[in-house]
Amino acid sequence: MSARRAAEAFRAVHGAPCEGVWAAPGRVNLIGEYTDVSDGFVLPFALPHLTWVAARRRRDGLLRLHSAAVGGGVVELRADRLAPGTVGGWAAYPAGVLWALRAAGHPARGADLHVESDVPAGAGLSSSAALEVATALALDGLYGPFTDPPGLARLARHAENAFVGVPCGAMDQTAAACCVAGHALHLDTRHLTWRQVPFDPTAHGLRLLVVDTGVAHALGDGEYARRRAGCEAAARALGVRALRDVPYAHLPAALDALRDDPGLRPLVRHVVGENHRVGAVAALLEAGDPRAAGPLLTAGHASLRDDFGVSCPELDLVVAAACGAGAVGARMTGAGFGGSALVLAEEADDRAVRRAVTDAFAAAGHRPPRIFAVVPGEGARRVG
Fold this sequence. Notes:
The protein is an alpha+beta fold. The chain has helices spanning 2-14, 92-103, 127-143, 149-164, 171-178, 223-238, 251-257, 265-286, 294-308, 313-324, 350-364; strands at residues 20-29, 41-42, 44-57, 62-67, 75-78, 111-117, 183-188, 193-198, 206-212, 329-333, 340-346, 370-373, 381-382.
């Protein structure tokens, strides 16, 4: 129905039928936060929530963009004049994708696009990557095929890095493009290789909850870039290409080597420890024991809070309240400074966990969080 709604809205906005509708999901990272900036390992899965892009080719070189979620009408740009820094706001994401395709030598030209989405923006669920990948897939469908889904993910990431100006790693776009329903994606962000890891919480009597705190994060404020720079400085100090090259067994020695750089030590402790947790959680899922992964999720949150410093009071409150109500494990997910937390709970404890989190927010004077159950969904595809 949402694909149909996007097609109908396209006709209303652009005055003609679209040629197709393409969709890409938001994502939740089960474990592996801030490891991708150090060539590490991550374990995301796709949400059932989607961004839909209805599209039609244009012959005049214009890119005309419209979003159902953003006021202000149609944004009109010239494809041959796109350059980093020339487009702001939400339109920079689809415009950046067209720019990246053209810069890579692909004959993508102008287009009319209309965007619909139910991926919560600012919630740490990669709404921007969903928009980028859906746009890349739409332009590939209109003018390609140019490349495969991993290739489109790389181009979408390049758009966010070079055109939008956010130095994100490879996880978000790869997850949006390549995830498979009922699985998490164990991704090596250096080599961009992966394997699909079975992950079906409901088959094990578990419920997976996303808690959107309602606190919007902003990656463009420099916090992400500062931590990435710190990880790169730590790798140089340790004489390795990236922190993924520090074995977990060598972590104490690495921390000792950085005793004169106290600001870098917690970054190293988090990234090396988090890479280890990703491997441990993936092994548990492959062994059919997702319940045992719960404490590792909670340990990952403590590391993000205490070592990496990217949590916030609302995220910490979700984790504390959920675990206090019997959740198997919980952690912030995404870049932090707001956004969402992930809670793994027994199905029988679902209602109690939701109530505990909601009551804790009310007692603290926060606005009510949005809590919804999720299952690992499908990656980007044509839907209309």
